[in-house]
Amino acid sequence: MNASETPAPSPWHAGERQLQNHTGVAARMDLVGRKVIRDYMPDQHREFFAQLPFLVAGAVDAQGDPWAGILEGEPGFAASPDPHTLRIAAMPDTDDPLRAGLGPGKAVGLLGIELHTRRRNRMNGRIQAWDGKRFDVAVAQSFGNCPQYIQSRDFYFSRSPSLRFAAALPGQAGLDAAARALIAAADTFFVASYVDREDGDGGRSVDVSHRGGKPGFVRVDGDVLTIPDFSGNRFFNTLGNLVANPVAGLLFIDFERGDVLQLTGRAEVVLDGPEIAQFQGAERLWRVHVRRVVRRPGALALRWRFESWSPTALATGRWPAAA
User: Fold this and answer.
1) Which helix (H) or strand (E) holds 254?
2) Which fold has domain 3-316?
3) What H or E segment, with its residue span, contains residue 144?
4) pTM for this prediction
5) What's residue 262's pLDDT?
6) Radius of gyration of the chain (CA)
7) CB burial class (10 A; 0-12, 13-18, 19+) of residue 177?
């Protein structure tokens, strides 16, 4: 076998493989992963990122807590000068906890998601160039995701994304009534997670992903959130990270007001047990025991207009009812 025929190494770490083995798909996902997870962005992804008005980003602060946040700008603020690089001309606000995890050499997870078309692509990498106003991310992993569970919304800017006037409320150790109400009504949130790999690639790998369901699909019990996990692509990027490193950062958005709720906490994955049946369509559950909370009213310039449930989702029953 010559060098050009050498198969790509498996992209999966131990936590992902554990869940793939648990569900009986490890052999198939080993083959799939080598084909679809790349160390560069195909042209289609490069063009997709360049047309977006926002990216979801995940990073890890000095305390080891992951945070998910939004980077926003006029379409074109994210651009790819070459297949191995994504250049982002936007920075988090100074009161955004995401900012503490960003900087030269830091690992970052990025999700490009277009809510009105329900397209999404993910890219994980490391910050390569940084000047405090923009930064480049060198690609480590690039792959697409299917449109399952994405609620369709159209966006508009309520103000220029360069204008900053919101300020975060004082940080809290738990959820207040307003935070619980936002979570209980949510049909969408984003989750950041990470692992410190020891499998040859080495280094930290951060991921950020989307979760969706009918409003109320996240159960709130005090400062504990329980989230159903529905049938998906079997990559287990998020849950695999949580198995290997049980901490998570969640981002909830009030799409009409631009309010942002960010939280981190200890995570656990529930693979078996009678409680899973309480969530229609769930194959497993995961929980977050909240320990740090930041609320940022009006933080986003972007707003989204709600659309009806996707006809495809309704026809196929892909939106499980919340318990």
Assistant:
1) strand 247-254
2) Pnp Oxidase; Chain A (2.30.110)
3) strand 135-145
4) 0.89
5) 98
6) 19
7) exposed
Q: Residue 285: phi, psi to the nearest 5?
A: -130, 160
The reported pLDDT for the residue numbered 146 is 67
Tell me which amino acid residue 133 is.
K
Where are the chain's structural domains?
Answer: 3-316
Tokens at residue 81, please?
Answer: 């000068």
Chain centre to alpha carbon of residue 245: 16
Burial (Cβ within 10 Å: 0-12, 13-18, ≥19) of residue 202: exposed
Tokens representing 234? Answer: 């079997």
Q: How remote is the C-alpha of 234 from its chain's centroid?
A: 16
Distance CA 138, CA 124 (A): 8
Closest Cα to residue 123, out of 198, 236, 193, 206? 206
Number of alpha helices (DSSP H) and beta strands (DSSP E) in the chain: 6, 16
Summarised one tens digit per residue, pLDDT across range 5-44 is 556 678 888 888 888 888 888 888 888 888 889 999 999 9
The stretch 164-190 carries a mean pLDDT of 90
